[in-house]
Structure formats: C-alpha cells, structure tokens
Amino acid sequence: MSILSNCEIKCSCGETFEAELWKAVNVFDDPDLKEVILSGRFNTVECPKCHKIFYHEHFFIYQDLQNEMIAYIYPQADKVMAADIRKKMLSDFKTLSQGIEELEKIDFEPILYFGIEDLINTIKNEDYIKDEIDILNFIAKRIELDLIKIKPAKARNLCILHTIPKTKKSTGDIKKDIVSGLEQLLEYNPNLVEYENLLARIKQNISCLDEILLHKKEK
Ligand SMILES: [Zn+2]
To answer: Full-prediction pTM beyond 0.85?
Structure first.
C-alpha cells in the first residue's frame, strides 16, 4: 500500500510549515500515483505564506511488483554517500520483507536512485519499450513465433526487452532460432526500433544470449 507521512518543510522565503508527503508508493494499489510522478506533481507543496509551489525532495520507496521493480529514491544530495546508502538499503529491505509474504518471495534487488528524475526516466523508457512488446505479442499470434520471457528485473539490468521472439521452425539451436524470430518479426513490422537494436546487438555477439537465456522465466 502507499503511505503518506507528515513532514516539516522550510520554504526559501523563510516560512516553515507542515505538509503530507508520500514516503511509499505502490503502483498496483494506486496506479494514479505513477501518473502523478510522471507529470512532475509528485510530492509538491505550496507555501502558505508566499504561495510558491515546489517539489520537496524526500526519501520514498517506489514499488511495482508486477514489473519486478522496487526502488529506493534518496535526495540527490545524498549521492556522495552512495556506498553507505546502498548497504543500508539492502539491510533495510531485508528487514522490511521479513514476515510479508509477497515480499519474502522476491528474488531481485531493489534499485537505488538519487533524485526523482532517474526514476521518471526509467518509467518512461519502460512504458515506451512496453509498446513494442505489446506489438510483438500481437504479431506473434499471426506469424510463426514463440515467445521467450525473461525475468523483468534481470532484463532491466541487462538493458534488454523482457520478451523475445523465436521462430517456431526450430533448428535445434535456440540462439539461431531467436535470430530468425527477430528477422521474421522485423520483416512483418520494420518499425520496431528496440527489436532492431536487439538483433544488431545479437549479430555483433551472439554469445550475449547465453547470459540472457540464464534468466528465462519458467512457464
Ligand atoms: Zn514561502
């Protein structure tokens, strides 16, 4: 669930006031909050004295378990202590997940961001990639393609799409089948930039698929 907390805020005009800010966001429970983050209105406050509206930087946790994403967002200024904060984050996360069934099952690490911008960029990028994956899902039903699903958190780490096509006419070599699958897909729709980049990356070094395939989702 998403959690608000009461914070004391100091405006540049000198006024001090209290406001409620999000310290935990769960986009499954509150999908609107994802839109609020993308729009730049997240954790903004208005000074009661000078009426300036501004973003108040404040630690929060962002949770999107469907996409295997848990992010800890610290203020930008804390970046100088990144190593210590990473350690603290991993131990806090361990404590947090104990006794919470859905969190205990988690087999991926939380992501650490300094400043909300990096979170916004990740969300935007993944929404963009999701459009191409949706198109692949649609096309795969029409042409002879099987889909390989990669664990989303691993796909994010490897900078790769979490759904990859392979041809149904198997040669017995899964790597060759993926190359054929991507070629078939791009022949059908040449406008899929992310898949085109993936094909180029694989053609340059086909063994990059070894690591990717380690993280295949079990069906
Ligand atoms: Zn003010």
So the answer is: yes
